[in-house]
Write a structure and sequence with these properties.
Length: 335
């Protein structure tokens, strides 16, 4: 088992009644380990969106850095990445980490998804990961992301779903810890099963061409994320104790038993399912023609996804799309 990376204490650490996790160096280390384990799949998400040079990107609820490093690499020196989080201690850890990595086009700003000083429609991409899982407020979060995205820009959401959080062979301590952690999140307003709801939320919010992808990190002894469940439990301890979900002594015993089981040579575990959903904010739909040509119907209104991309249209075949060329109408013949 790898110990969590050490992060020097740089600010006051907060535990509040409306947030399930502690904001401590151990939790920041857990978040970074999680981010690193998910980096490959997050890269696939960003590449499928087409994030590229010059993009203005926002990572809403970035915590100790979130995906700002991956955005930074793609946006390049002409792009800009903002990491927004309400927690000063998380931002201090994020700034230190970004400084060590030399991320020059990234800025970390204190703010809330629902109360911030960011420009409306000021970003090409607004992304959030695991914020819904920890605070709920599902629809409000999607609406907030949408309001910050320029017309034709992209909203991307990655949320957790504990449905596949499982361990083999089963163990009573592991099972009990899973039940405790999901209940603790619920008590604090979070939702460990938010992932499965995101696609529907995105469609209902009016995003277009909504895409859906899932990924999961599997672990066995020695893997970086093998201690995911015990570490999440420890970060959630104040909420667990506050709601009487377990005593301190019981938690300590369960964590020990669970770690012993996870350290066995043949135990395997799947962590939470990560559900990735992304879609395009419509441009002004008032400009949509009703029926462009007899025999044709409008399929979608879209902006080019990336500068100078080559798109296929049913009527014109492959076409080159100039950067910010405006609306591209996709039409199809009635069969
Ligand atoms: C589980 S962490 C995820 C951090 C980061 N997105 C990542 O994937 O590593 C959830 C983050 O949401 C932040 N958060 C909580 N309430 C928020 C709000 N109202 N608006 C924006 N972020 C919020 C927390 O401070 C925390 O950093």
């Amino acid at each position: 088992m790898h110990p969590a990376p050490k992060v020097r204490q740089v600010a006051r650490f907060v535990t509040d009644a409306t947030y399930p996790m502690e904001r401590t160096p151990a939790e920041f280390g857990r978040l970074r380990l999680q981010a690193e384990s998910l980096a490959f799949d997050t890269g696939i998400l960003l590449d499928r969106i087409g994030v590229g040079a010059g993009w203005r990107c926002l990572d809403l609820g970035c915590g100790a850095g979130g995906i700002t490093d991956l955005l930074s690499a793609r946006a390049g020196p002409t792009g800009r990445v903002v990491g927004l989080d309400p927690d000063a201690a998380s931002l201090a850890a994020a700034r230190r980490w970004a400084g060590e990595k030399g991320l020059e086009n990234v800025e970390f700003v204190e703010g809330d998804a629902f109360a911030h000083a960011q420009p409306p429609e000021g970003f090409d991409l607004v992304h959030e990961r695991f914020v819904m899982t920890t605070i709920g407020r599902h629809r409000e979060l999607v609406d907030s992301a949408l309001a910050l995205t320029r017309p034709g820009g992209v909203v991307a959401i990655q949320e957790a779903d504990a449905g596949v959080l499982t361990c083999y062979p089963p163990h009573p301590a592991w099972d009990r810890l899973k039940a405790i952690v999901t209940t603790a999140f619920e008590h604090a307003g979070g939702d460990c099963f938010s992932g499965r709801q995101v696609f529907r939320l995105a469609v209902e919010a009016g995003l277009q061409q909504v895409e859906f992808r899932t990924c999961v990190v599997g672990t066995r002894r020695g893997d970086p994320l093998v201690d995911f469940l015990p570490q999440t439990i420890l970060s959630t301890k104040p909420v667990i104790l506050k709601h009487g979900l377990a005593s301190e002594a019981e938690l300590a015993r369960l964590v020990d038993d669970c770690r012993r089981h996870l350290g066995a040579p043949t135990t395997v575990q799947t962590s939470v399912l990560v559900i990735q959903v992304w879609g395009w904010k419509p441009v002004d739909t008032r400009r949509a023609p009703t029926i462009p040509t007899p025999g044709f119907s409008v399929l979608s209104v879209d902006r080019p996804r990336r500068p100078h991309s080559r798109r296929f249209t049913p009527t014109r075949g492959a076409v080159d799309v100039a950067p910010r060329a405006g609306v591209l109408w996709s039409v199809a013949r009635h069969e």
